[in-house]
Description:
This protein is mainly α. The protein has a domain at about 60-125. Helices cover about 75% and strands about 5% of the residues. It has helices at about 25-95, 100-125, 130-150; strands at about 1-5, 15. A two-stranded antiparallel sheet has the order 1-2. α1 runs antiparallel to α2 (about 100-125) and α1 runs antiparallel to α3 (about 130-150).
Amino acid sequence: MLAAERGAHGGGCTVVATDYDELSIPELARRLAETTRLLVQKQVELAKQEARADLQITVRGIIFLVVGAALLLFAVVCLLIALTAATALLLASLFGGNPLWLAGIIWLVLFAAAGGICLWLGKQRIRTRPLSLTRAALQENVEWAKHRLTPPER
């Protein structure tokens, strides 16, 4: 069998072969408690690391959403400018004028396309199921523990 024990440098974990039949029950209990403590400590460390990574990805996605929303707001402003220019053109057609509305429409299309792309990119970067690696590792540990605690069939 294998048992996890503290490494010489405090931070690492080394695996050594041990004959558990020769150990006392208190020593086995101590080793089990230490191994369980190390496993829980590593799982918490993994969860913290994964949560930080998920948060960074989510923040980047939110930034894209904000930029996209601002660009779409600019598109609405351009639409209003285009409608105003078109109305001015209609009034100017009675007295002469030029097509100012075309410039408003061009900017409307550019801002709307850029805003739509930013919103799509931001949505793609937001995680809907955070800590997926930690969940998978915990499920694997539960399955391993169930297998280890199930007595062998004779």
